[in-house]
Amino acid sequence: MQAPVSTNAPPEVGAALQRLRLARGLTLEDLSRIAGVSKSMLSQIEREKANPTIAITWRLANALGVPIGELLATAEKEAETIRVIDAHETPTLPGNHAGYVLRILGPMELAGKYEWYELTLAPGGELASQGHDPGAQEHVTLLHGAVEVEVGHSKRKVKTGGTARYPADQQHIVRNIGKTEAKALMVVIHR
């Protein structure tokens, strides 16, 4: 049985930040530009001279393509077989103007190959997308609510529990046609 990890000290973000940055071949200047965090602040964090705010940690995690928890993980946690990403660590793309919220469920390292999302649509909300790369496919499974999928000139309604599969290399829309919120899982496969 392992000794309990002390929770009195803040997590040592610096070592994890440096390890992830170097693994991606990034300089402090590169990461500074990508994350929008000053080079001097990054240096202080890596040397454990400063603890980043949650907002800065979030920006760094997004820039590195990792869950925020990976920057906050202790060595003991990194060795775990099962890695759990808490809901508040899941990157979210709010499309409030269009009535949708898209939670990125898949790991960033698979982006551009396999991507999966949780799509929440307000009544009348829609997620309209331009065509993705040639051969891309989307699969939308409706968890609850009522949606319609439109690809080109074709429209199909999807019932709860049903899955719409369609080419995503042309303009496509997933639209809530019901009076209540709709929720779906969306998988994008790039070829």
UniProtKB/TrEMBL annotation:
GO CC aspect terms: cytosol
InterPro entries the record matches: Cro/C1-type_HTH, Cupin_2, Lambda_DNA-bd_dom_sf, RmlC-like_jellyroll, RmlC_Cupin_sf, TransReg_Diox_bact_type
Keyword annotations: DNA-binding
Pfam families linked to this entry: Cupin_2, HTH_3
Regions annotated as coiled coil: none
CDD domains: cupin_XRE_C (cd02209), HTH_XRE (cd00093)
Keyword DNA-binding: yes
Cytoplasm listed as a keyword: no
Any one GO molecular-function label of the UniProt entry: DNA binding
Domain HTH cro/C1-type, chain residue ranges per copy: 17-71
PROSITE patterns: HTH_CROC1
Name the UniProt record assigns to this protein: XRE family transcriptional regulator
